[in-house]
What we know:
The protein is mostly helical. The chain has one helix and no strands. The model has no long low-confidence stretch (mean pLDDT about 80). Interacts with GyrB. Belongs to the DNA gyrase inhibitor YacG family.
Amino acid sequence: MSCPICDEDTVIKFRPFCSKRCADIDLAKWLNGSYAVPSQREEDMEADVSENDNAVQRPH
Ligand SMILES: [Zn+2]
């Protein structure tokens, strides 16, 4: 098995990574991804609400 970050041989202590540095890099990717997704969803929900308000007002 090789490190998913840099393809070096995995070290059992840090598996599936080769070092703490690569583990930290992967962790940072996960944190960035998990922070980005919820904020985008909130914006989408707000956009849907405003669109619904316009849809309600237009038929009148
Ligand atoms: Zn690595």
